[in-house]
Amino acid sequence: MYNLRMTDTFPLVSEWLKPATLKAAVLESNSLEVFYWPFNTGGLSKTTDKLWVKQWVKTADIATESEACVRAERLDQELQLTFSDKLYDIVTCHPPCTPHFCHLLFKTGLKPATNVLPAPEAIHYQYGIDNIPCYDLEFAFKVNADFSNVVEGLHMVIDKIYDDAGKGKYPFNLPAEFRICKASQAFLSPGYDTDPNALYCFLEVLSIKGTGGYDAFSAELGDAWMKRFGGRPHWAKMWEHVPDVHARLRAQPGNVERFAKFENVRKKYDPKEIFFGNASLRAVIRGEKLPAGFNGKAVAGF
């Protein structure tokens, strides 16, 4: 077992979200996760908004918190998120409250910190997430050499949030976040690559379940990430409502070939085709036509 130093900082978007800064942060960390909380400095101006940057670095230093302290913090997280779920009813019922509500939660709930914890505790740092039912769309795309496409991808989210707010629309009320991961050789992984050292960005947008307009908000972003970066969806989250997503995934370079490789393996271990009880997967992997009346929004969970 080893320990990780977990550091939370809150730099300005305008100062930190730059390709060179992001690349340096990734290369000097064992892991990195970046969050953007909407309207986090109040008002309807993004010029002073901040990011939440979370970094993990392996260390020989001893843990700064006892097991009892960590358990108490986990219980506190469970209770906080249970309570927050009730508060979020205000936002779904009264969308114009969204900027004020998000600003309040960001201001009261997040602080700069540095802690050393055993790796499992540092990695699984947040408990109670399941207490807040939410909508979630996530796409992965290959990080380019200078990391500029990751910066562009998050700016797409921020720009859309404020464009919608300017029209009196508030479809987004939880964080956008991204992780940078090594490529996978699993045939169906959205981060699949023949180069094991390639890096992939997993970028997601979340909103409380019942938030009006999230379906269109997320579909537009998913569509843009596919067009701009060749994005692929996280299968277990919402994606079927993205325009023409099934056909577009099959049309991406190399996908038909790797789906065929997956099929060769699946046939051996799944002769009864239990895996293909899902019409979306049959359409993407086999190229079958979607059933009559297929409703991507309904299948996605809206």
From TrEMBL:
SUPFAM superfamilies: FAD-linked oxidases, C-terminal domain (SSF55103)
Domain D-arabinono-1,4-lactone oxidase C-terminal: 54-277
Organism this protein belongs to: Jimgerdemannia flammicorona
Keyword Transmembrane: no
InterPro entries named in the record: ALO_C, Cytok_DH_C_sf, FAD-linked_Oxase-like_C, FAD_lactone_oxidase-like
Superkingdom, taxonomy of origin: Eukaryota
Name of the protein described by the UniProt record: D-arabinono-1,4-lactone oxidase-domain-containing protein
One annotated Gene Ontology cellular component of this protein: membrane
This protein's UniProt keywords: FAD, Flavoprotein, Oxidoreductase
